[in-house]
Amino acid sequence: MKFARAPWAWALLFALMAAWALAQTPAPPYVVLVSLDGFRFDYAQRDKARHLLTIAEQGASARALIPVFPSLTFPNHFSIITGLYPEHHGIVANGFFDPERGALFDPKKSSAEGFWFGGTPLWNLAEQQNVKTATEYWLGGDAEIAGRRPSYWQPFDDSVPADRRVQQTLDWLRLPEPQRPHFLALYLSDTDHAGHDFGPNALETHQAIGRVDQMIGKLQEGIQAVGFPVNLIVVSDHGMQSSGGTVDLRQYGDLSRVRVVSGGPIALIYAPDAAIAERAYRSLKGKSRAFEIYRRRETPPEWHFTDSARSGDLVVVARQPSDIIASDQKVRKGNHGYDPRQYPTMNGIFYAIGPNIRPKARVDAFENVNVYPLIARILGLRLPDHLDGSAAVLQSVYQP
Questions:
Q1: If you placed Cys at 123, which of 18, 105, 150, 288 could pair as Cys (CB 3.0 to 4.6 Å)?
Q2: Angle 54-41-210 (CA atoms, 0-180°, nearest 5)?
């Protein structure tokens, strides 16, 4: 009875009960998402990438990861991290024009400017729900998007070697539990650079595949050493195709009154009004079998490319392995950006292993917008209202 008359005792009891309940509540799982830029769907098997093949064998794997159109680095990294098609998140190419702002997105200058990015990146979704995150050079990870950033991030610097990027990711994972991020996104670019500069079948590209495979091995060793279970998901944004030269649009039509932003096998054309757009369309239509031109509203529905004015008034795509240009540009030996449904060489990889990944799960090729809901489910996050990806696609990969 005396105990009941002491309010401080009841307060202490309730505090102890709350602390006990909190201790019994499991912490959110951990996810490390790694992108190997330009790592084609068949590279691991072709080059016997030991660490990646072990993940694929012991964990979950897909026949291929299908990139969004266009199969370029910026649109696909942001589709993976938002679960949205480019027409909905706004990053429609590596370089593009925004008619509303009258501004050009330059991949070397604009990627840290948050106003370009729509949707809810996974790190924002997690931070909104009190889950700490970290990004090591993932596209958009150094931008303030909708007023938020990851808990840990660094300004993009592509000169930083892969081993230092892996080490930074592991250093974040080794932080004390209250400061430790539960979602970490890591970007490695070696295979993309080699594929562009030397082609997908070159010795230098084989060597780059070996280097990133070793980095995956180093990352796995570090994960095993931290002493708590971590889910590792390895993806790529696109594949790589040997290039066959260039197609210069200036040889086929009048481009004097339009803006052309080209990159790889795609060019986006912006006109000041509908009449000029139509004039440019008619001047190019049917002029060469090397390319096809579309009015944006008439692009193939599987591209999901019609809703954003950033996609241009007209869209020109190569019909054979070549780069579409409208100015003097350097020709690369390998490239990407093609329609993945026409060019399987554009497909990437999906390998995953960890406590919330069903062992030996095998799935067919799927679009990369479906990675987002899988990671959100693992982390116990509520999904945003609008999403192009579906949790049902990778239902067989997840285990509680």
A1: 150
A2: 55
